[in-house]
From TrEMBL:
Acyl-CoA thioester hydrolase/bile acid-CoA amino acid N-acetyltransferase domain location: 19-147
Annotated GO MF terms: fatty acyl-CoA hydrolase activity
Originating organism: Gouania willdenowi (Blunt-snouted clingfish)
Protein name in UniProt: Acyl-coenzyme A thioesterase 4-like
Family membership: Belongs to the C/M/P thioester hydrolase family.
Amino acid sequence: MQYAVAPILCVQPTRALVDEKFKVLVKNLPPGRPFTVRSLHLSEDKDYWEAYGHYVSDHQGELSVRDDLSFGGTYTGREPMGLLCTMCPIPGSRPGLRLRKKDVTTPMLVTISVYSGHEDHRDQTPLASVVTERWYMAPGVQRFPLQQSEVRGTLFVPPGPGPFPGMLDMWGGGGGLLEYRGALLASHGYACLSLEYFKPGELETANQQYSYFETAFNIIKDHPQVNPDRVGIFGLSLGSAVTLNLATESAIVEPRCVVCVSSNNIFSRDMSIVTAYTNLSKCPVKHDENNCEVWRDVVLPFMKDTSNNIKVEKIRCPMLCISGCDDQNWPAVEIVDNMMETLRAAGKDHLLTRVDYPDAGHLIEPPFTPHFRSTNFLRSIAQDKVLMLWGGQTKPHSDAQEDSWRKILSFLQHNLYGNDRP
């Protein structure tokens, strides 16, 4: 099709943090015609990811991803950030992929393009394209890998002299050093230590004493740019078990508040990570129709043995628990039910704020992260790779990520900054 005036594609802002929204507007189109808007990203693993929506230009020859309905593609309806949160590997890609940023000092480059029609857009030359940058590190955030230290991790410090509130950030049972959430927290004003406590697939490196985590907490607390009285802990899945153990049993760690995503309270301080994983490995694992491992039902019996449970009644600080009601990896909702009952009996239920999201899965991450119902997972127990079912449906899971991040930042603002932050 020939156009009298070339279509104009506007993306604002083209450079932003990953949790910021953008606006995508196309002008100079023929009125009432079908068009496809697509995003394309080449991951650090050299896999292509895409999302796209099918739109119809209005009577002025314009379409807005924020305001208009998508009639098909990877999302439908009015989805302002559908071009990011519904990204998936392009057809023919390797199975079981997960999109995670490894080098947070560089942006995710996402190309937004517009095509004529609703079919065969991959075979077309785009009418217009714009390259956008999505950052985990805001300008001025400093990154300091811990070298010659007792712990393994990376420290992120916000711009300015401080003092800042501090955060210890821990991920789950996949192991490894993951920096992207810590970098994003630093971009919001928190000095954050992203901690590695075992290597992916190497269970022997998980045999850490709790003094390891206490040392990590104190590295943050004692940093000259951190307010030592305003340090919190953030844990996801297995990391939430470490978080709760520190908040309830440590004699030297006094977090101001804690955040637990996909909570785990059945790995008590007396049970090492190695022991817990070994016990789980003895249970028969279920598989779904796609041969994905489903751990949820394996874990439920452990809840009945209260000797495994962390003594949450000992907690002394506010706690925020985020759970997905379709979590197929971990019975997070039931665990928080159990924690609430225990805290209520102890007269401490006022310390727990819980948010449960219908049809959200296990991997509740920062906003606009693509949803992964299942991915490859390197099991530390057997050192083999399996397909793991995490659960969740794309639309409600994406909404949960956006809403929970707002609630997490609000919770941290209230408990770590209080009235000291403008």
